Amino acid sequence: xxxxxxxxxxxxxxxxxxxxxxxxxxxxxxxxxxxxxxxxxxxxxxxxxxxxxxxxxxxxxxxxxxxxxxxxxxxxxxxxxxxxxxxxxxxxxxxxxxxxxxxxxxxxxxxxxxxxxxxxxxxxxxxxxxxxxxxxxxxxxxxxxxxxxxxxxxxxxxxxxxxxxxxxxxxxxxxxxxxxxxxxxxxxxxxxxxxxxxxxxxxxxxxxxxxxxxxxxxxxxxxxxxxxxxxxxxxxxxxxxxx
Length: 243
Prior knowledge:
Strand content: 15-25%
Low-confidence stretches: 1-14
Oligomer: single chain
Structural class: alpha/beta
Strand order of the largest sheet: 1-4-3-2-5-6-8-7
Order of helices and strands: HEHEHEHEHEHEHEHE
Radius of gyration: 17 Å
Distance between the termini: 34 Å
Shape: globular
C-alpha cells in the first residue's frame, strides 16, 4: 500500500520529496456519501493541527492511542479497532477513496474508536502530535520505490524516523511491515541508526507477525506470488543510546 507521507519539509525555493503519488482513483457514490456524512464524526481537519491534539478530547475518553500511517483501504485499521476496543486509533491517509472506504466500514461495524487524518503524515506528525504522547505507530506495506533513482522517495528515512521516535512514549513500539526484502533491509539500517529505538528481535532482524496485525488481502496475494513478509518492531527507549 502506498503511504501518505513526505520525506522532507518545505524549504524556501525547494519542494519536498514526496513518498507518495496522488492516484486518480474515482470516489464511488458510497465513498462520497461516507465522506460527506461521516467526516464530521470521524475526521481530523488540518486546521486542528495548530496545536498538538488532545487525545482525551478527540475520543471522549482516556485510552492508549495508536497511529497507523498509510492505511490504504482501511481493512487492517477497522479490523484492529474492532478487535481492540480498549484502544483508540488514528489513521493517516491522503487517498480519498481509501478514506471513504474506511468510513463506510466504521459505520457498518459501528466502531467509534477511530479518527482519520486525510493529509501528509510528516506534516501531521510534526504539527499535531506531541512528543512522547503515542502508545504505538504502525506503517504497513509502504511503497518500496524499488528503482534506485526513486530510493530518495522512500518513506522510511532518518528524519522521518526521528519524528516518529519522538512521538512515541518510552516503551511504545514502532511496527513496520513490508513484502519487499531490499526495502526491509533498508528499514533495518535506518531504524538501527536511530539512537532512541531498539530492535525487539532477539537476533537483531525481523519479528514474527504480532497478533494485532491482521493479514490483508494485499498481503495474502503477495504471499501467493511467493513474496516474503517482513515485520520489524522497534521499541522507544527511555534514554538515548550511545554508540
